[in-house]
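Hi everyone,

Forwarding the result from last night's run.
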Amino acid sequence: MNTNKKITAMEDMKVKFSILWVFVMFNMLSADILSFMYPGSLKEIMTGYAGGIQITPEFLLVAAILLEIPIAMIFLSRVLKYRANRWANIIAGVVTIAYVIGGGATYLHYIFFATIEVVCMLLIVWYAWTWRNPEGQS
């Protein structure tokens, strides 16, 4: 494989990861927006509790950190070199899958979006796991 093809293959995979993370983010945001529209949802949140969990500054910080992972991966997938990119996508995918499943609601729309998100993140993990290093790339 010549050098141009190796570089093109590397960049194609980076673009693929970035686009998949954008897709995940839009689905996460859509699920959250529709959840706010669910009858009684905003009223419950305004009490300081949601789904039996107290909403504290610490809780919101943890939620922000977990939501930042897919946001950061949109950028990091484009700029990280092969090895760091591969492992970042695997780890971010697994952590975000756990977050989506563990923090999910039982609303039908949420289950629909969560299913799409998990399938997409499994695809990210699979692509990263099976991604082979073009010679000369680090």
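Strands lie at 49-50, 53-54.

Cheers,
N.
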